[in-house]
Design goal:
The protein is of the alpha/beta class and 154 residues long. 25% of the residues lie in helices and 10% in strands. It has helices at residues 50-64, 93-103, 106-117; strands at residues 8-9, 17-19, 22-24, 68-69, 74-76, 136-138. The strands form 3 sheets. Strands 1-4 form a two-stranded parallel ribbon. It has a two-stranded antiparallel sheet with strand order 2-3. Strand 2 (17-19) and strand 3 (22-24) form a beta hairpin. The termini are far apart. 21% of the residues are buried. The mean pLDDT is 77.
């Protein structure tokens, strides 16, 4: 039953963790005015988006009220959201499985966060609560049979 999940959550559009063993935010997972695939998107750890800053404040409030928040380690989504058919650029299941196996080690976890997700704190890769586990973000709409399943955003 779902009543067991009352103290667990996930923030929309952002990769935020608030656990006893882990506190991390993604500075560039949310966007303000420019989509991340746009060449003019300008974000870094030193210059997070305004929405990422707000998201971190909301996450802090939720954690202080007793909720654990989970982000993701790996996103199974289009390789190119700007493509005419984003869902046509999805990583294959075989490649996804290989990435999951690789990310289940602490060193690969750290390399992934350092290179791709703009995490402020990825020390949790070494924690027993995280080691050997991989949270995957998927986008169910990409699997629909229709315009949204082909990646339509309007």
């Amino acid at each position: 039953p779902n009543d067991k999940l009352h103290a667990m959550g996930r923030m929309p559009y952002t990769n935020t963790y608030r656990l006893d063993s882990q506190n991390s935010d993604c500075a560039c997972c949310t966007t303000d005015d420019v989509p991340p695939w746009d060449p003019s998107f300008d974000c870094s750890l030193e210059k997070p988006t305004f929405s990422a800053i707000l998201s971190a404040l909301v996450a802090d409030e939720l954690k202080s009220s007793g909720m654990d928040l989970y982000g993701w380690d790996l996103e199974w989504g289009p390789e190119n959201w700007g493509d005419d058919c984003p869902s046509c650029t999805l990583t294959t299941a075989e490649n996804l499985a290989d990435q999951v196996i690789e990310l289940s080690t602490a060193d690969a976890c750290k390399d992934q966060f350092e290179a791709h997700s703009y995490q402020r704190n990825y020390a949790f890769c070494d924690s027993a609560a995280h080691l050997g586990k991989v949270n995957i973000l998927t986008h169910d709409f990409l699997f629909e049979d229709g315009p949204r399943g082909q990646g339509a955003t309007t």
